[in-house]
Design goal:
The complex is a heterodimer of chains A (485) and B (481).
Chain A: H1 10-18, H2 24-42, E1 45-48, H3 50-65, E2 76-80, H4 107-114, E3 118-123, H5 157-164, E4 171-174, H6 181-187, E5 190-193, E6 214-218, H7 221-231, E7 261-265, H8 275-290, E8 294-298, H9 306-321, H10 340-351, H11 354-367, H12 373-393, E9 399-403, H13 419-424, H14 430-435, E10 438-446, E11 452-459, H15 464-478
Chain B: E1 3-14, H1 53-65, E2 69-70, E3 73-74, E4 77-80, E5 90-93, E6 100-101, E7 104-109, E8 112-125, E9 129-132, E10 137-140, E11 147-153, H2 160-177, E12 189-199, E13 209-214, H3 217-236, E14 245-249, E15 254-257, E16 270-271, E17 278-279, H4 282-290, H5 296-307, H6 311-318, H7 321-332, H8 337-354, H9 366-377, H10 383-396, H11 400-407, H12 415-428, H13 430-437, H14 442-454, H15 461-478
Parallel strand pairs in B: 13-14
Antiparallel strand pairs in B: 1-11, 1-12, 2-6, 3-17, 4-5, 4-16, 6-8, 7-8, 8-11, 9-10, 12-13, 14-15
Helix pairs in contact in B: 2-3, 5-6, 5-7, 7-8, 7-9, 9-10, 12-14, 12-15, 13-14, 14-15
Classes of the chains: A alpha/beta (485), B alpha+beta (481).
Chain lengths: 485, 481
């Protein structure tokens, strides 16, 4: 039979493997062929260790032949280059980590391995997950598979492009201010940012520790539920992971929305947003109403402060998190330094890209003596208010429906000279990270130019089943979207 | 003009935990470089800290020992600065919510007791160690991440001698608490010293200097003995003291200003997002308080009362918690605590110091010492034999009564046998007898010595003396004296 990865989901691949219609080695080989064929154009991957992938697949096939089980046995997955995968590079798309080989597995990666997953390659991203277009990669630009003149979004743009472009069945991303949901929306795939503390961050190279979260980028909501089920849970190695029981997310995918109350936050439907985005989201809301949901308008009054709050907290934490990249212990070290201070300067000047430097400087500034109270402390207070906004609305409804991004994907090069414009594009996604709640991005249509538009479903902390149920029911009712037409 | 001195100490104490502050690596001293390391303590990408609960507990115990208020809500913060020995280029420390606030340490100076205030105790991680070779430098990260407790004193100390006494008292308390080995050779205790002088009568403190990273108490004493007159000299000659960090040079015995660049820090503290705040309930604090070890001073007073030993003895015995423990275990098994104290203060401490040994490592048991004292008190052996037995116990351990039996050291108290020796001695030492009869009482002692020799040391000396005395009296009467 001829295998096609392009539209293959995890659940379909599991069925093929279990029905002995193909082996993991065959799946991986087809996948590697596709990467060889397409990735020169898309640029989704930073590194692919073909031999390693094939030997993992062989091990999975052997395990299956011996009767061993695993929820992802033999399933190839792509991993964003910000996560440590033992024995593989982990550059975070930064020149400063060139040559670094991860000596350990991130907990999320280890959990995928335990279920038999085959880790195929490392996907491109904005350097250290800072950016919304993947143009800030220190190595290459990833293109949107729906139209290669456009950005795939970011920072998990490589993962989203690989999934949408048929170069991966599913992938892992990370989301600090929208970095899973926005590229998923831009590329027309599903992206889930779980609740803060739901999945261990151990092994995720930190950008902003109080905001970062690992999550799946998949072809449909069901696959996202499968991957979440594998990775969720308390980890002793991450003190911020939370010991909340992990439900069977698949059982929540009922296909209807009966009895569900969905809120529309009025602050998320604002003047200035792309009318095509608003129209697509409003249509999706109607579909949800048709599935039995009660739709109510709600208010998140502190939404206006979210962007500035986010950029203060995220950059402050980043300035400390990225201090360790100094050329002393691993990665890139600039030559010709006179003394340690000179070495730091030269290494960091050459190793970091412009956006990373901009954020380190911002973060250093807001933490400086004399400015701390005005910036960082105030931002933490506003963060509490934003969190309270969500607690209040979730007393009235089970989930919220909003756009993912106020715009459709933009052309490569369009915002790279205007960082502020790019920051404002995060307006609907950063709030979930600030509040620590969960959010899902589901395709809900396309623009007149055939570019994808995403619907965001936000849910209360540790109620991923709410947003997966809503996203899944909507997705099933929505029908196929044929991008580019 | 007379000057007043103000000193404050920041003491960094390595806690006695098995593993590091935020990872499972060993804290053992002396391993080959970079063998006790992992992604966490090397600051690898993606690694995260996990709090060592034992270290938190030990810090709280230390606070309770010196009367600190224990924070029910405490947190860790990141302190940012770049230095090659610091893996993350930030140190996880505590800024505005330390585990322990307030407290004091009592010291004695010339027989007068004073309390030195403690501002706070917080917990942090140690850094690695830079090593410089001929053409390159290296870093050993074995020490990076080892838990350090920082004890900050109030500026209550007014002389180098008080600073020294404070450090000794603090060390004694921490050893009693069992929270640190306080091994100075292994760098377990390191001090930063702040000091200033001001003319008598001036209210506000003078400008202070900080002498960093002193790793011996003598170093603190000597550095202050240099730094205080230096500051006075500067002021006397019309100069100005600059707030600066200085380094103590052991070889030359002077303090030297470090480059200003090295201390112009803005640490940019902010709460550590990777760790939850440390919440300690009242119940947990009270539980620790209930099981708190006795303070050295309390124990000293108790020894005087409970075991009726002199104040001097109690002071010597309680100086080292292990010695005090040995004494107490032994004294509890004995009806003669003063004798136990004498054995420890003379024989035991002498042998320990001769061999540079720690009492924790001796083979003689508290029960054996109590047994030895009993044998002497019951006159089974005399004091000469007892010394011999103690020496054997100290070398090889064992039971004193068994040693006495094996070595045949049981005291001869059979007056018939002793009389024979005495008769022989009197017969063989006519000169001494006549000396005695001529009024030289000491001559009797010589005869006692002769008898002891004949009995090979085993005769009961009191019995020997009294028999000799009786016999000589008889002799005296015979000669019509």
């Amino acid at each position: 039979m001829s295998l096609s990865i392009a539209n293959m989901t995890i659940c379909e691949a599991i069925a093929l493997l279990e029905g002995k219609q193909c082996t993991s080695v065959e799946l991986v080989s087809v996948l590697l062929n596709e990467i060889r064929r397409i990735d020169g154009t898309l640029g989704a991957y930073l590194s692919v260790d073909e031999n390693d992938a094939v030997s993992q697949a062989m091990a999975a096939d052997k395990a299956r032949s011996e009767g061993r089980k695993g929820r992802l046995l033999g399933i190839p997955l792509a991993v964003k280059d910000v996560l440590n995968v033992r024995g593989q590079p982990c550059t975070c798309a930064s020149k400063i980590l060139q040559g670094y080989i991860a000596p350990y597995d991130a907990t999320a990666v280890a959990m995928l391995r335990r279920e038999g997953a085959v880790l195929v390659g490392r996907t491109n991203m904005d350097e250290f997950a800072m950016g919304s277009s993947t143009e800030n990669s220190g190595f290459k630009i990833t293109k949107n598979p729906r139209n290669i003149a456009y950005v795939p979004g970011g920072s998990s743009g490589g993962s989203a492009a690989a999934v949408a472009g048929g170069e991966a069945i599913a992938a892992l991303g990370t989301d600090t201010g929208g970095s899973i949901r926005q590229p998923a929306a831009f590329c027309g795939c599903v992206g889930l940012k779980p609740t803060y503390g739901r999945i261990s961050r151990y092994g995720l190279t930190a950008f902003a520790s109080s905001l970062d979260q690992i999550g799946p980028i998949t072809k449909n909501v069901k696959d996202a539920a499968v991957l979440l089920g594998v990775m969720a849970g308390r980890d002793e190695m991450d003190s911020t992971s939370v010991d909340v029981p992990v439900p069977d997310y698949l059982t929540s995918l009922s296909g209807d929305l009966k009895g569900m109350k969905l809120g529309l936050p009025k602050e998320y439907f604002v003047k200035g947003m792309d009318p095509e985005v608003e129209a697509a989201v409003r249509t999706a809301v109607e579909v949800c109403g048709g599935l039995g949901a009660e739709v109510v308008e709600v208010s998140l009054p502190h939404t206006d402060y979210a962007i500035s709050t986010y950029y203060i907290i995220a950059t402050a934490e980043a300035s400390a998190n990225l201090a360790r990249f100094d050329g002393v212990r691993y990665g890139f070290r600039a030559a010709g330094a006179e003394d340690p201070i000179d070495m730091y300067g030269k290494t960091r000047a050459a190793g970091f890209g412009a956006e990373v430097k901009r954020r380190i400087i911002l973060g250093t500034y807001v933490l400086s003596s004399g400015y701390y109270d005005a910036y960082y402390l105030s931002a933490q207070k506003v963060r509490t208010l934003i969190k309270r906004d969500f607690e209040n609305v979730f007393m009235q409804c089970d989930a919220l429906l909003t756009p993912v991004s106020p715009t459709v994907p933009y052309k490569i090069g369009e915002t790279s000279s205007d960082p502020l414009r790019m920051y404002l594009g995060d307006i609907f996604t950063v709030t979930a990270n600030l509040a620590g709640i969960c959010g899902l991005s589901v395709p809900c249509g396309m623009s007149s130019q055939g570019l994808p538009i995403g619907l965001q479903v936000l849910g209360p902390a540790f109620r991923e089943e709410n947003i997966l149920r809503a996203g899944h029911a909507y997705e099933s009712a929505r029908g196929l979207i044929r991008y580019g037409e | 003009m007379r000057y007043l001195t103000t000193i404050g100490l920041e003491v960094h104490v390595q806690l006695r935990t098995r593993s590091k502050m935020f990872c499972g690596c060993s804290t053992a001293f002396g391993a080959a470089p970079n063998t006790h390391v992992c992604p966490v303590c090397l600051g690898y990408p993606g690694a995260m800290p996990v709090m060592n609960r034992d270290a938190v507990k030990m810090t709280i115990i230390s606070g309770l020992m010196i009367g600190s208020r224990i924070s029910e809500f405490s947190k860790f913060d990141r302190k940012s600065y770049f230095y090659p020995d610091m893996p993350k280029n930030y140190q996880i420390s505590q800024y505005d919510k330390p585990l322990c606030v307030g407290g004091s340490v009592e010291i004695d100076i010339d027989g007068v007791s004073r309390r030195i205030g403690v501002t706070r105790i917080h917990l942090e991680e140690d850094v690695g160690k830079n090593m410089h070779f001929q053409h390159s430098s290296g870093i050993d990260f074995n020490r990076a991440g080892v838990p350090l407790m920082e004890i900050v004193s109030e500026p209550d100390i007014s002389s180098p001698e008080e600073a020294f006494a404070y450090l000794l008292a603090l060390k004694q308390i921490l050893l009693y608490a069992g929270v640190s080995d306080c091994n100075l050779e292994e760098g377990n205790v390191r001090c930063d010293v702040n000091c200033s002088v001001r003319p008598e009568g001036q209210k506000e403190f003078g400008t202070k200097t900080e002498i960093k990273n002193l790793n011996t108490f003598k170093g603190v004493l000597n550095a202050l003995k240099y730094e205080i007159p230096r500051q006075v000299d500067v002021l006397e000659s019309g100069g100005k003291i600059f707030q600066e960090t200085r380094r103590w040079e052991v070889e030359t015995g002077v303090t030297i200003a470090m480059r200003s660049k090295e201390y112009a820090h803005d640490y940019r503290y902010f709460p550590e997002p990777d760790l939850a705040p440390v919440v300690t309930s009242c119940e947990q604090i009270e539980e620790l308080r209930r099981n708190l070890p006795e303070l050295p001073r309390t124990r000293r007073e108790r020894f005087i009362q409970q075991y009726s030993i002199p104040e001097y003895d109690a002071g010597v015995l309680t100086a080292d918690v292990a010695v005090a423990d040995f004494f107490e275990q032994s004294a509890k098994l004995s009806s003669n605590p003063k004798a136990i104290s004498n054995w420890i203060m003379t024989e035991m401490l002498r042998l320990l110091s001769e061999r540079e040994m720690d009492i924790r490592k001796v083979v003689v048991t508290p029960a054996a010492l109590a047994g030895l004292v009993k044998l002497v008190d019951e006159k089974v052996i005399n004091s000469n034999s007892a010394k011999e037995v103690f020496a054997l116990l100290f070398e090889k351990g064992g039971e004193p009564d068994q040693i006495v039996r094996e070595k045949g050291l049981v005291q001869v108290s059979d007056s018939g046998a002793i009389e024979k020796f005495v008769d022989q001695a009197i017969a063989e030492n006519a000169k001494s007898v006549s000396d005695y009869l001529a009024g030289k009482d000491v001559a009797a002692k010589y005869i006692v010595g002769q008898v002891m020799k004949m009995s090979r040391g085993k005769a009961n000396p009191q019995l020997v003396a009294s028999i000799i005395e009786d016999k000589l009296k008889v002799e005296k009467m015979k000669r019509g004296g």
